[in-house]
Recover the amino acids of this structure.
């Protein structure tokens, strides 16, 4: 909490001084009130002097008005500080999370990051508001009331001195047991957020697989777990109020008893006894509030450490000091490979098996690399090393002849456009989604990208065209339409390298072929117009998508099982041959070198054939 105050409190230092100072003035009035009431009782009510009652009544009224004025100023300072700090912390967290690499994001997990940026910041905000308003008030009121009471009468003060530690002891007993549970509650809230997120974002799948009962059960278990912990805390803290008020009221009885005797022997006045009762009530109530402050600050300190954990997480992927990389001259592209992996390996954690193992390959500019392999063979992981979404754990990856770690990240990610495996769009319009890579892209450029991505037809059919709305996650588009829009998004801003990670999986064969044809044309056109030809990396599980690539990399458990053209691999790589045999028609296989067509090769007619003869 202190660390957060140091980091974000500086701007609000003025408010944090003015607020408590105003509260202090209000507390002084609160402390004076019992004395004025005592005067009112002794000089007004006791002596049947109406004028004195009116006089002290007016003094009390004036004190109340002044006290409220200072309270209002304090409230405003508290609101400005807490809301301002909350906004700043949220902004800093959001910015920092955006700088974290995939590895760090994987480590925290999205639901936990969401809870931190919402619930945890709220807890800190609440603590700051209470801190400005109450941190001075309750301790000062408690001590001030005690001192004032003891100043009235030391004998009655003994009762006071017995009651206060008794209540303090009860609080210590309860709090010491509650505090660990408050920390657990935050972690359990994370768990509920995780289940909510999974259940809601996958609602369609859950329904399709009739898993509603299972999901309900999972949510109920997590909610019950959280509720049970909250109930334990609730039960423990429910002891507080009755015990506190019991001790307090016993104390008041004792004061009235002993005070009454002293009034009778004229050692004390009635007003002084009343003032004593008021001070005692004020002190003990203050202790209750101080305990509440302890609860709020305990929760806030657990939240603050979760926030600090994110803010202090140093992004493992940075580009500090990296100078812009000069791209190859269009006329002189031969010596520099667009892309090269040099014994690159990657693992998701210390001790975890390599997801990518010792990959070495070179792809010249303007060429197409196809990556094929079974599920979980490391295709997505391999291509995510190119724009530095992850850094290779061993070996290196180079783009245009320069190690990716030497590139400024912005430049690298502008040169390399990625179409992720999971097509994701954000709420807004088609235009706002397409201009991510280049905000100044003209309508013509957007339509050209949509044409290439085979998406222009359905966009043109929308009455608002480029300004048609996109709902969160692109829910108002089909899977194939979403994929085409994400491909178009990657093509805007003239990338030099295009990575499509299984981006055509939801496209029919004809559209897939037309898309690849358009990309190839664009590459040739780019070179003819004096620019760099487009280099393409296509990840797919379909042989038909990669077979025309200049180079195909066959991955198996993260390692390269084969590297070459379709014909070379068919002749030399058993895994590739098996994939082909399971996917291509008998007629297509018969033309292959060294092919022995198995009886199991599909004979059914292929889906609509493209001009490439897929
Ligand atoms: N974020 C992650 N944390 C830990 N392990 C991961 C993570 N992402 C992937 N893996 C593991 O790394 C391996 C390679 O995964 P990857 O996503 O690269 O496979 P893929 O070939 O793209 O599969 P698919 O064809 O299903 O997309 C898998 O064993 C997977 O379990
Ligand atoms: Mg993948």
């Amino acid at each position: 909490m202190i660390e957060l105050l140091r980091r974000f409190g500086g701007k609000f230092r003025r408010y944090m001084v003015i607020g408590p100072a105003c509260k202090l003035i209000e507390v002084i009035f609160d402390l004076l009130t019992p004395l004025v009431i005592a005067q009112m009782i002794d000089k007004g009510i006791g002596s049947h002097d109406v004028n004195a009652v009116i006089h002290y009544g007016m003094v009390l009224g004036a004190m109340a008005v002044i006290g409220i004025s200072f309270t209002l100023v304090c409230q405003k300072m508290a609101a400005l500080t807490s809301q301002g700090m909350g906004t700043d912390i949220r902004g800093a967290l959001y910015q920092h999370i955006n700088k974290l690499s995939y590895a760090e994001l994987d480590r925290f997990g999205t639901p936990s990051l969401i809870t931190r940026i919402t619930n945890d910041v709220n807890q800190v905000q609440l603590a700051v508001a209470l801190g400005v308003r109450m941190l001075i008030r309750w301790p000062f009121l408690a001590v001030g009331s005690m001192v004032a009471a003891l100043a009235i009468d030391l004998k009655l003060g003994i009762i006071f001195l017995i009651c206060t530690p008794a209540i303090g002891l009860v609080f210590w007993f309860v709090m010491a047991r509650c505090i660990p549970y408050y920390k657990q509650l935050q972690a359990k809230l994370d768990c509920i957020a995780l289940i909510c997120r999974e259940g809601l974002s996958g609602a369609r799948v859950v329904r399709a697989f009739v898993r509603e009962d299972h999901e309900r059960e999972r949510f109920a278990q997590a909610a019950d777990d959280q509720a049970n912990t909250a109930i334990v805390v609730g039960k423990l803290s429910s002891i507080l109020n009755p015990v506190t008020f019991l001790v307090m009221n016993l104390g008041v009885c004792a004061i009235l008893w002993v005070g009454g005797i002293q009034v009778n022997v004229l050692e004390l006045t009635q007003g002084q006894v009343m003032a004593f009762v008021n001070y005692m009530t004020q002190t003990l109530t203050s202790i209750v509030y101080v305990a509440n402050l302890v609860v709020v600050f305990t929760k806030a300190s657990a939240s603050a450490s979760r926030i600090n954990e994110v803010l202090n997480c140093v992004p493992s992927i940075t580009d500090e000091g990296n100078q812009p990389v000069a791209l190859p001259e269009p006329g002189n592209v031969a010596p520099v490979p667009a892309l090269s992996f040099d014994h690159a390996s990657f693992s998701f954690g210390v001790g975890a098996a390599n997801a990518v193992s010792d990959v070495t390959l070179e792809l010249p500019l303007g060429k197409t690399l196809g990556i094929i392999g079974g599920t979980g063979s490391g295709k997505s992981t391999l291509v995510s090393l190119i724009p530095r979404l992850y850094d290779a754990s061993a070996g290196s990856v180079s783009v245009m002849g320069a190690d990716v770690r030497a590139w400024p990240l912005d430049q690298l990610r502008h040169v390399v456009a990625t179409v992720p495996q999971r097509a994701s769009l954000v709420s807004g319009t088609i235009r706002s989604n397409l201009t991510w890579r280049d905000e100044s892209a003209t309508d013509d450029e957007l339509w050209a990208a949509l044409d290439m991505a085979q998406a222009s037809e359905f966009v043109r059919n929308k009455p608002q065209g480029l300004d048609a709305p996109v709902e969160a996650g692109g829910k108002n588009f089909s899977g194939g339409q979403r994929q085409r829009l994400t491909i178009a998004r990657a093509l805007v801003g003239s990338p030099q390298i295009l990575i499509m990670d299984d981006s055509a999986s939801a496209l029919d064969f004809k559209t897939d072929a037309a898309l690849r044809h358009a990309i190839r044309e664009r590459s040739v056109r780019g070179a003819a117009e004096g620019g760099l030809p487009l280099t393409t990396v296509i990840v797919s599980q379909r042989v038909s998508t990669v077979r025309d690539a200049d180079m195909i990399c066959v991955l198996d458990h993260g390692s390269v099982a084969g590297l070459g053209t379709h014909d070379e691999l068919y002749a030399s790589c058993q895994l590739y041959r098996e994939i082909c045999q399971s996917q291509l028609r008998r007629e297509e296989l018969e033309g292959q070198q060294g092919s022995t067509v198995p009886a199991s090769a599909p004979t059914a007619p292929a889906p609509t054939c493209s001009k490439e003869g897929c």
